[in-house]
């Protein structure tokens, strides 16, 4: 069983096609003692998952080659990854986007630009929600039987960098 409260034991897979986003998020998570693996598209992300069972996956939705929607669908087909929280890290920030992303099955939604001071707290909350859902398993039948469009059809792909961020802003 993973220790969800000890970030030093976490392994996080961050999948994003923007190199600056990967560097910033990886640096912040590493600062908190997490082991961070990265990939620049869904294909590379799935390759990482052939030999990795992370504590959490941060997944950009709009990427070349294989987008985050399709990667999410593939992740959920792998039994050993069923309980791994997957958090959408995305520029989708219009009214209703969060609801569509969560309805597609993602465990949480973080919009870009991410709030770096609260990134770890936001991730902890996503993991706590996933653990609580796994422990209760009390989903009403009406929710279980609600038809869902494939994640890749939920919303249009939009992407933008996390934003201007200086590596000097991270505490040493």
Short overview:
The chain has helices spanning 19-31, 42-49, 68-75, 97-103, 119-136, 141-144, and strands at 11-15, 35-39, 56-59, 86-90, 108-111.
Helix run count? 6
CATH architectural label: 3-Layer(aba) Sandwich
Order of helices and strands: EHEHEHEHEHH
Relative strand content: 5-15%
Low-confidence parts lasting 5 or more residues at pLDDT below 50?
A: 140-169
Gap from first CA to last CA? 31 Å
- Mind telling me the CATH class? Alpha Beta
Proportion of residues in helical segments: 25-40%
The strand line-up of the biggest sheet is 2-1-3-4-5
**For the CA atoms, what is the radius of gyration?**
15 Å
Report the sheet with the most strands, covering strand number, pairing sense and barrel closure: 5 strands, parallel
How many distinct domains?
1
Structural class: alpha/beta
Topology:
Elements: E1 11-15, H1 19-31, E2 35-39, H2 42-49, E3 56-59, H3 68-75, E4 86-90, H4 97-103, E5 108-111, H5 119-136, H6 141-144
Parallel strand pairs: 1-2, 1-3, 3-4, 4-5
Helix pairs in contact: 2-3
Please characterize this protein's 3D structure:
The protein has helices at residues 19-31, 42-49, 68-75, 97-103, 119-136, 141-144, and strands at 11-15, 35-39, 56-59, 86-90, 108-111. With 172 residues, it is of the alpha/beta class. It has a single domain (7-163), classed as Rossmann fold (3-Layer(aba) Sandwich). A 5-stranded parallel β-sheet has the order 2-1-3-4-5, with helices on both faces. Helix 3 links the parallel strand 3 (56-59) and strand 4 (86-90). Helix 2 (42-49) packs parallel to helix 3. The chain is globular. Mean pLDDT is 78; it is low at 140-169.
């Amino acid at each position: 069983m993973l220790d969800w409260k000890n970030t030093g034991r976490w392994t996080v897979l961050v999948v994003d096609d923007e190199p600056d986003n990967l560097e910033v998020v990886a640096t912040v998570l590493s600062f908190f003692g997490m082991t961070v693996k990265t990939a620049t598209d869904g294909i590379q992300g799935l390759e990482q998952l052939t030999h990795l069972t992370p504590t959490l996956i941060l997944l950009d939705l709009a990427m070349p080659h294989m987008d985050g929607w399709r990667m999410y669908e593939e992740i959920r087909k792998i039994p050993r990854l069923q309980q791994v929280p997957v958090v959408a890290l995305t520029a989708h920030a219009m009214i209703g986007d969060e609801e569509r992303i969560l309805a597609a099955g993602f465990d949480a939604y973080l919009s870009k630009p991410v709030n770096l001071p609260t990134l770890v707290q936001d991730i902890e909350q996503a993991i706590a929600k996933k653990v609580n859902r796994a422990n209760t398993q009390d989903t009403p039948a009406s929710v279980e039987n609600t038809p869902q469009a494939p994640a890749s059809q939920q919303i249009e792909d939009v992407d933008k960098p996390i934003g201007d961020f200086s590596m000097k802003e991270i505490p040493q």
